[in-house]
Design goal:
498 residues; 4 domains; ten-stranded mixed beta sheet; four-stranded antiparallel beta sheet
Length: 498
């Protein structure tokens, strides 16, 4: 109608950022205001709450019925126990007086055995049904807590005041921010038996407990860093001072600390289906690189309800080349691991990485955020075909006398031997990591260092004293690494770590 019109857009979201409300009216006239508003109602505005409450009452009634059945079974079992106790005394008594009818004895024993078996089977079935019902009741209670709104008699709406120039139909576009909705990336990497090309899938794990359902929405997820109340960092003066006594505290102060709750973890289950056709691929989201972030647009409409459950949606699947090698740290573990190392060809966010090797689940690891060109490693499991053993073959204290006078320092010699053996029928690239001690004080000296063969890389990953050897091992081939050094330290101050 011409003139001032109040247009209401209802929402059941628990919490809306009222400062981020925006609206557009497509029609003749002008928009006066946009604001969040509560409209009193006589009934609860959320039908979903009532629906869950009805389901909860049904399950609670079903549990009461099951408990009644279990009580009846307990009475039957008690009666049967009494009958068995009676037979233990009555039949021997009959034997003393007169030989009982064997047909009656067999019939009685068959009845007891059959009835006991039926009671036991029915009892197990009821126990399982009670367990499943209790689990469903617990789930419904959590879901009810997740979808409860204001809990009173008010409807939430976004009010738009629009001064219409004429009578016509208008179209509205309203945007607002809600809380309790988030997403996390998770990854799945499939490694073939020939170790040639990996298939990396990125999925979005979405949790949505905003209070409103999202049916048939166009969904996009972004790795943008939210900015709310964040100021640019300021640098203060770097002052040096001498220690000063702390002032006396006359009263106590309390500070409130707010922490973000950890994101819920998803449980995934793999279902294997035998078929002749090739398995279907994951759908791929449309990736868009923005100035400050990446954004992925899901290519199909999705339904995401506000509930205590997670939605898993595919974002991308990529074939990536990887270098595979064997990895050993014999000072820490006797196992040698098969590792695949690949480079990210686009930005990868931090998230859980599930590794599947030759169609079998190996385990989970965590992928840190990777920029294009950065490498990341995946543990494919221990390989018994590559043996690496580390032995201490020398640990002696040399003579510390000068003439007849004992010196005040200890000279201790060490020698280690690392043996690597390939008992497989195929060659292998092996990387071994080991370390030599590093002194943190001038009172301790590490001298006479001899390493054969020389390390491929010293101070590996910028860690002092850590060395990396990388070499090829042919089938049945053995190689040795020998490390020798002496440590000198005060006699009355033995160093820790040796």
């Amino acid at each position: 109608m011409p003139g001032m019109n109040q247009l209401l857009v209802e929402t059941t979201a628990f919490s809306i950022d009222q400062d981020a409300l925006t609206a557009q009216v497509f029609g003749s006239g002008e928009m006066i205001s946009v604001q969040f508003k509560l409209i009193p109602l006589s009934e609860h505005p959320q039908d979903q709450v009532r629906l869950i409450q009805d389901k909860l009452r049904e399950k609670q009634h079903a549990r009461r019925v099951l408990m009644d059945k279990k009580t009846v079974l307990e009475k039957k079992s008690a009666f049967l126990d009494g009958l068995i106790d009676f037979s233990k005394t009555q039949i021997p008594k009959d034997v003393q007086t007169s030989f009982p009818n064997m047909a009656d004895v067999r019939e009685t024993m068959d009845f007891i055995g059959t009835t006991a078996g039926m009671i036991d089977t029915e009892n197990q079935t009821i126990d399982k049904a009670i367990f499943e019902t209790n689990r469903e009741i617990k789930r419904l209670k959590k879901e009810l807590a997740a979808v409860r709104g204001l809990g009173g008699t008010a409807k939430q709406a976004i009010e738009i005041l629009f001064n219409a120039a004429k009578k016509e139909s208008v179209r509205l576009k309203v945007e607002y921010l809600v809380q309790r909705a988030a997403w996390q990336p998770i990854y799945k990497v499939a490694v073939p038996a020939n170790l040639e090309e990996l298939k990396l899938s990125m999925l979005a794990r979405i949790s949505q407990k905003s209070g409103e359902n999202w049916p048939g929405i166009e969904l996009s997820v972004s790795n943008v860093i939210p900015m709310k109340g964040i100021r640019l960092p300021q640098l203060q003066s770097w002052n040096l001072d001498v220690p000063r006594p702390m002032p006396m505290v006359l009263g106590k102060s309390r500070a409130k600390v707010m922490a973000e709750a950890p994101a819920p973890q998803a449980s995934t289950e793999e279902v294997l289906v035998e078929q002749d056709e090739m398995p279907a691929e994951f759908a791929t989201a449309v990736a868009k690189e923005l100035p400050l972030s990446f954004e992925y647009q899901i290519p199909f409409p999705v339904d995401i309800e506000s509930r205590d459950q997670l939605a898993i949606l595919p974002l991308l699947t990529k074939n990536i080349s990887a270098q595979t090698f064997h990895y050993s740290v014999p000072a820490k573990s006797s196992l040698t691991f098969l590792v695949a190392e690949a480079e990210a060809d686009q930005e990868l966010l931090a998230g859980k990485l599930s590794v599947y090797f030759s169609g079998r689940f190996i385990g989970d690891t965590h992928l840190t955020e990777k920029k294009p060109g950065e490498s990341f490693s995946m543990n494919l499991g221990a390989d018994r075909g590559i043996k690496v053993r580390r032995e201490k073959i020398l640990d002696i204290i040399k003579e510390t006398y000068f003439g007849k006078i004992q010196r005040d320092r200890v000279v201790r010699s060490f020698a280690y031997k690392i043996t690597a053996e390939n008992i497989k029928d195929s060659p292998a690239l092996l990387k071994i990591i080991d370390s030599i001690p590093v002194s943190k004080t001038d009172k301790i000296e590490v001298r006479d260092l001899q390493i054969q063969p020389k390390p491929t890389e010293q101070d590996y990953q910028d860690k002092a004293g850590v060395n990396l050897w990388a070499f090829d091992l042919g089938p049945g081939e053995q190689k040795e690494i020998n490390i020798e050094f002496t440590v000198t330290y005060p006699k009355d101050s033995a160093p820790y770590g040796l």
